[in-house]
Amino acid sequence: ILGSKNAQPGAWPWIVSIQKKEKNFVHVCAGTLIAQQWVLTAAHCFRNTRAKRRVLVGGTHLVPKGPRTQVHNIRTIIVHEDYDNVTHSNDIALVELDQPVQCSPFVKHVCMPNASLQIQELTNCYVSGWGATKAGSARKTPVLQEARVKLQDLKKCNSSGWYRGALHPYNLCAQYPKGGINTCQGDSAGPLLCQDTSSGQFSLVGVTSRGRGCARTRRPGVYTAIQPFGDWILAQMG
User: Fold this and answer.
1) Is 2 within the bounds of a domain?
2) Could you tell me if 125 and 192 lie in one domain?
3) Each residue of 60-88: pLDDT tens digit?
């Protein structure tokens, strides 16, 4: 995340690191705990489904450190059946863990947005992840980062000077209009969270899908909105 700062342990207790086995395990995507055995993430993270993967829960570091961190294997990966890697449509997926997580101050599942929540009216929104903190860098950040972002009007994001019609009705876009703060390489599939003004609770409103460059002017981060996929999520979880 460009323009980010280190997240404190337990600040975002639902974020997980999905890691792929190479020589060692390496971070490929983030995800969000939505139930004790389920992680919501992005479909584009699973183009190669054969690789051995694990999920790191409860830590701010990308390597298991101390008793807070839990390591889980994956039982099932469910990629949305209508995902298209060219148009980025339906960029959403679920991961079922082999065992339920042990809840703690550092491991909790996130609140999901109810159908009546007016997302565009929410002003206190955050992204978090282990992605690059410099544009053009492929280096992951070893410590979890966080940054506040501002939701942008989807029509504006889809207009001619911006994404030129490439966005879908169920996308959200967020950054600061002048750029400088936004998700970057390695932040894929992480959570976009906004605080409900009435309850004070943070809800998961989006999953990081894509962007053009990192934090460029008129190139906000693009997210898959959670609300339109609520029924799909519940159906997959059975």
Assistant:
1) no
2) yes
3) 999 887 789 999 999 999 999 999 999 99
What would the DSSP string read from start to end of 205-229? EEEEEE-SSSSBTTB-EEEEESGGG
| b/e code 170-191 from CB counts within 10 Å (16+ = b) | bbbbbbbeebebbbbbbbbbbb
Distance between CA atoms of residues 238 and 47, nearest Å: 24
Could you tell me if residue 3 is inside a domain? no
| pTM exceeds cut of 0.90 | yes
CA pair distance 189, 40, nearest whole angstrom: 8
Residue 1 domain-assigned (yes or no): no
Residue-level pLDDT at 212: 64
- The CATH number for 75's domain is 2.40.10.10
Catalytic amino acids?
Answer: 44, 91, 188
